[in-house]
Amino acid sequence: MTNINKTDSVDQDFIALVQMLDKDLAIRDGDVHEFYNQFNQIDLIKHALVLYENGMPVACGAIKQIMQDTMEIKRMFTKPGCRGKGYASAILKELELWASSLQFQRMRLETGKNQPEAIALYLKNNFYPIENYEQYMGIDSSVCFEKIIMKKD
After folding, report:
1. What pLDDT was estimated at residue 41?
2. Mean pLDDT of residues grouped by 10 in the chain (153 residues)?
């Protein structure tokens, strides 16, 4: 049985999953990990999700406001032994619904070229590639995506 809990960045299960994510990214990103790490602090995240499988935290994701009408997806992670079960897509769907309920029109995200599973996930969930935004401009190892979730009136 799975369930998804809404929480924030002080949730201990969310923190533990993010620590696993950071270890994985340190290996994948190598020398540029410290550059990315500066944009991945969780202390100000107010909107986080933790997905539980049989009471155990196995996946997470979060959103944070980056523009008046835009939320950025942050800290997406599924434990390696729990991948391939649709948990990341479930997290994305819940984040989208949450952002929409807060009246945001758009979601953006950045991932790395060394994360082909993440790229496939976002494409499968109807995110489309965009030019790298703000802090990721000119960073060759970054890939940015966007999805419109609510039309402006």
Report:
1. 60
2. 95 95 76 52 84 97 96 96 96 97 96 92 97 90 93 66
If you compute the radius of gyration of the chain from its CA atoms, what whole number of angstroms results? 15
Pairing of strands 106-112, 70-78: parallel
Task: For residues 89 and 78, give the distance between their C-alpha atoms in angstroms, rounded to a whole number.
Answer: 10
Q: Write out the two tokens for 151.
A: 């039309």
Distance between CA atoms of 94 and 134, rounded to whole angstroms?
25
Residue 80, C-beta contacts closer than 8 angstroms, at least 6 positions apart:
none
The two three-digit tokens of residue 130, written as one number: 């965009």
Q: Is the pTM of this model over 0.85?
A: yes
CB atoms under 10 Å from CB of 5, counted, come to 15
> Which is nearest to 76 in space by CA: 48, 35, 43?
48
